[in-house]
Specification:
There is one protein chain. It contains four helices and eleven strands; from the N terminus they run ααβββαβββαβββββ. It has about 240 residues and is α+β, with helices and mostly antiparallel strands. Strand 5 and strand 6 form a beta hairpin. The termini are far apart.
Length: about 240
């Protein structure tokens, strides 16, 4: 009887050791045979915190605003302008962000044309940005894809972003944008700020100021009459400058 008990205990010990070895081996390998360590163990996505799962691709969208789509430079997107007075016949635009140039003086041809149009001497003085800032000129294309003539401009509707910091046109910047629109209008390229009929298209320019040495990462284009209205942040489109 004692001999049988000893044999049983011996067999039990062997089985325990075999199982322990098997568990130790399996914990050091993935299902594909790749070795892992406690430092690089994968964690199921469901266990990640919300902050670690958020993508930086939404940087530039106003907090609380719905991102209708995320695009890249050169990709066209259609905006239906949300306004209470045009519910039955909303303005619809197809926009394409072409380029953003920073750190250069504003176009002298634009400035000279603007000065001459009001009888000021030319060449026009070169404007300087605010201290610690640089000019950035946004170029877009706009096509009216709605059912009636419509007007649109960058002011209060577009922001140029550095990460999650958003820059809009100041009143002075808006005047520079108007100078660009007038100059291109004189060349036969009518900007939507002067109104475009259905099917017509024209250039859009926006002038922004961001800190010197920084590079813009995205452009936000709202689908509202302003980025933020009395109803809060409006939906819009995020164009990544990649």
């Amino acid at each position: 009887m004692d001999q049988h008990l000893k044999v049983s205990r011996t067999v039990g010990a062997v089985v325990f050791l075999v199982l322990a070895a098997a568990c130790s081996k399996s914990s050091g390998q993935t299902s594909a045979g790749e070795t892992t360590s406690p430092d690089n163990l994968s964690v199921p996505a469901s266990t990640l915190s919300a902050s670690s799962a958020v993508s930086n691709d939404t940087d530039g969208a106003p907090p609380g605003a719905k991102v209708l789509d995320t695009l890249k430079t050169g990709e066209a997107f259609t905006v239906t302008v949300l306004a209470s007075n045009t519910v039955d016949d909303p303005s619809r635009w197809q926009f394409t962000v072409r380029s953003v140039e920073c750190g250069k003086p504003l176009d002298s041809a634009v400035l000279n044309f603007s000065a001459a149009s009001v009888g000021s001497p030319t060449p026009a003085p070169v404007p300087t940005p605010e201290s610690g800032k640089q000019f950035c000129v946004l170029t877009m294309n706009a096509r009216n894809v709605g059912k009636s003539k419509a007007v649109w401009d960058v002011s209060d509707k577009v922001s140029l972003n550095v990460g999650d910091t958003r820059y809009e046109e100041s009143q002075k910047d808006s005047e520079y944008s108007s100078a660009y629109a007038q100059y291109y209008n004189s060349k036969g390229q009518v900007a939507p700020t002067f109104g475009l009929n259905p099917g017509s298209q024209g250039p859009v320019h926006g002038v922004f100021q961001i800190p010197t040495g920084q590079k813009p990462t995205s452009v936000w284009v709202t689908s509202g009459t302003a980025i933020t209205t009395i109803d809060g942040p409006q939906p819009g489109y995020l164009v990544l400058l990649k």
